[in-house]
Structures are given as C-alpha cells and as structure tokens.
Amino acid sequence: MFDLLEEYEYIHPRDFKHEQPKVNIIILGDLLGSDAFTKKTKSVLTNAMIKNRHMGICFAVLVQSIRAVPKNIRLNCSVFQLASFKNEKVILEDMYEEVSNVMGVNEFEELYHHATDKPFIASLIIDTTSGKRFLSDLDSELFIDHADKKILPNK
After folding, report:
1. Cβ–Cβ < 8 Å for 69, 61
2. What is the DSSP string of 93-119?
C-alpha cells in the first residue's frame, strides 16, 4: 500500500486523474473449420469471448454463417454487420431472430436491401447495445416509417 501511495505522490484518490483503460481489439476470421469454437468448457477463447467486457478486450468475429458460432458467444454479441452476400436468404434467415421482436421479416429484408444496395462496401449494421438500432454503413441510422412503409435514413 505504501508503494502505491508513493507512486502517486500521496495524492488523495478523489484528486487522482485516471487514464481511460485501453481496449484491445482482436479480429478473428475464418475459424469455422478450426477447433477455435470447441465445446470444451475449459476453452480459453470461448471464456474470453464471453467475459470480454471485463477483460478490456473487444472481439470481431468474421463469419459467413452466424449459426456456426456457438449460441453462448452469439448471445454476447452486441453489434452485427451484414455485407452484401450471394446467399442472402440464408444470412437473413439466420439474423432475423435478432430483430424479430421489432420488425417483420419483409421489413427486415427491405432494410437489408436498402442498406446494401450501394456499390462497393455497403452494409447493414445492427446495434443491440441499447435496444435495436439499424445503420447503413456507419454514417446514417435507418428508421422504418410504418405508416408510409418506407425506410428513412437519419444522418
């Protein structure tokens, strides 16, 4: 304890300016054919992915099939990014479960098409951190006007 006091020059804790903790981002791609998502309860990777918020780690898992990721990991995901896929029917069916409480399947498909209909790197982002937010790329939030059955961007 005295070492800590000396290290911080005996400053009172309320006057000590804490530096924001660093967050490490780990990007995992092409893991579906590997043993990364093993069913063993002692899996270090699975444990880290579930408890990542407490460890200062952010994982980005790049997959072509969300169902291939174990459910306990999927339930801890808070942001999903859907790019344009040739097998969009499978992708949309897999992801619809995440948004089924806020919109119908046709609305979800329309939202996806609206967001991914641009050339190059267009995507639909689903943010579930506080409710459900839908974004076209990172620059505009999307809303569904149920009266006019239109998708409205809000920049």
Report:
1. yes
2. HHHHHHHTTTS-HHHHHHHHHHHH-SS
- The pLDDT of residue 22 is 77
At 97, list the tokens.
């479960």
**Using CA atoms in the order 105, 111, 117, 120, what is the torsion angle rounded to 10 degrees?**
-110
Q: How far apart are CA 140 and CA 153, in angstroms?
A: 6
Q: What is the 3-state secondary structure (H, E, C) of 24-80?
A: EEEEEECCCCCCCCCCCCCCHHHHHHHCHHHHCEEEEEECCCHHHCCHHHHCCCCEE
Digit-coded pLDDT (tens) for 52-94: 877 888 888 888 888 888 888 888 888 888 888 878 888 888 8
56, 52, 134, 136: CA torsion to nearest 10: 60
CA contacts within 13 A on the Cβ side of 121: 4
Report the distance separating Cα 103 and Cα 101, nearest Å: 6
d(CA 16, CA 110): 51
Dump pLDDT digits (tens) for 88-127: 888 888 888 888 888 888 888 988 888 888 777 788 888 8
